[in-house]
Amino acid sequence: MKIGRILSGMRPTGKLHLGHKLGVLDNWVKLQDSYECFFEIADWHALTTHYKETESLKDNIFQMVCDWLSVGINPNKSIIFRQSDVLEHSELFILFSMFVPLPWLERNPTYKEQLREIEGRDLFTYGFLGYPVLQAADILIYRADTVPVGEDQLPHLELTREIARRFNYLYKPIFPEPQAKLSDVPALIGTDGRRMHKSYGNTIPLDTEEEDLKNIVKNMVTDPARVRRSDPGHPEVCPVFSYHKIFNIKEVDYISNACKTAEIGCVECKMKLFVKLNEFLTPSREKRKYYMEHPKEVWDIIYEGNRKAREEAQKTMDLVREAMGIKIWK
Ligand code: TRP
Ligand code: SF4
Asked: What are residue 223's phi and psi, to 5 degrees?
């Protein structure tokens, strides 16, 4: 028995990294057994910001789904589908657009922040302003009650609930008010100690090969005050140490002491981390290779997911059209 229905999604903008796995994907994998899950490749959402770079879209979709499958998203349990293959999303989006007040979108903190922060892109578009309306359509078209996302998505979830309430009030109560489900793992920091983000070049992609991983770990930032091997270190400010706390729990106490007393050097400490990280990444790396070599299997999974998603979306749209008085033909 499933206890609810989940919809979540990601924009296909490239390969995923360790932060995605710990922060979002591991959560998705766990929820697959207790919820009916819909995982969406949000390619229209990718276009809201990347409308000029469409040549890489198809490969980005493929890479992202390989990452999903490699970490354990299971197509026998969950529905993996592509947003633009379920045209009903666009219909619901257009209908929502009729009654979503503009100020709701203009005051959205994520919108304002991204307008400020994303440089080199013209984001003063209709599509970008409407981003959260499309996201609300994604969620509500499956009448999902639970949405596992990162903290950055909370304003969008709030807006989704407001749109559901407004629809239910104006027409007919058919939508649940979906709740966000945050992962309880704190965000993984980047290899340089800043927030992990592709644009900073401080991520660890999930498909990193052993030798590359070694180099990434070797280049990780350490306690800046520890200049010489004989200087005592401060593990609490060291990014390498924060990784040990996640991937090498058994040795954390030892490393903390050995660092503070200068018994262990950073090179050795990093090698220990490399070994653990490599163990952690190997199974999904292998699985990923399999899918990379069998692209047809990947596309078939999406194709089949599209079919199932469409079926559910159509049921909701039928209710929506009726509720809004635009259903004439049987
Ligand atoms: N906005 C989400 C992100 O940037 C992606 C997304 C699109 C999404 N539609 C969704 C997430 C529906 C959850 C539910 O990560
Ligand atoms: Fe960081 Fe390890 Fe060096 Fe200490 S020994 S500063 S924990 S890398």
From this structure: -60, 115
Contact 90, 304 (CB under 8 A): no
Tell me how far apart the alpha carbons of residues 32 and 325 are, in angstroms, rounded to a whole number: 36
Q: Which range marks the domain in which residue 22 is found?
A: 5-188+295-324
Residues 247 and 105 in one domain: no
- In this structure, the answer to whether residues 311 and 226 fall within a common structural domain is no
Q: Could you tell me how far CA 20 lies from the centroid of its own chain?
A: 6
- Contact partners, residue 145, CB within 8 Å, separation at least 6: 4, 5, 176, 178, 179
> Residue 239 maps to which CATH number?
1.10.240.10
Please check whether residue 145 lies inside any domain of the structure: yes
The residue assigned the tokens 């980005």 is 60
More confident residue, 236 or 186: 236
Q: Which ligand number lies closest to the CA of residue 83?
A: 1
For ligand 1, is residue 143 a contact (CB within 6 Å)? no
Q: Ligand 1 atom 8: the closest Cα is on which residue? A: 9
The answer to pTM > 0.90 is yes
Domains held by the chain: number: 2
